[in-house]
Design a protein that fits this description.
The chain is of the alpha+beta class and 84 residues long. The protein has 2 helices and 5 strands. β4 and β5 form a beta hairpin.
């Protein structure tokens, strides 16, 4: 499938980690991280002048994150931020 992320683990399989949803000022970030989503929240918060909250997280691969991005592409505002 075109456009899927190419980050893979040492065996060449799609990297496993966490898919998370964060909210800021009514917009939602759908992202993936190999680290704790709470640690990722700290990094995202540093770049935002407004409060960012972690709405939810599940274990999942980059492929699943890409599927979510595709499912919500009509709601994309910018990058990984969506108007849900």
């Amino acid at each position: 499938m075109r456009g899927l992320p190419t980050r893979v683990d040492h065996s060449g399989q799609p990297a496993e980690g966490y898919i998370y949803v964060m909210e800021c000022a009514g917009f939602y970030k759908i992202g993936w991280t190999a680290i704790s989503p709470r640690k990722r929240l700290v990094a995202v918060q540093v770049g935002s002048p407004l409060p960012v909250t972690l709405v939810g997280q599940i274990e999942g691969s980059l492929m699943v994150e890409a599927e979510w991005h595709e499912a919500f592409k009509g709601k994309r505002v910018r990058g990984e931020w969506f108007d849900l």
